[in-house]
Amino acid sequence: MDSFNSIFGIIFLAYGIYCIYACIMMKKTGKINKTILMSKDLEGQQCKDTAAYIREATPKVLVMGIGAIIYGGTDLINYYLFAVGYLNVIMMALFLAVLVWVGFGLSKLRKKYY
Question: What are the structural domain ranges in the chain?
Answer without folding.
Answer: 2-113
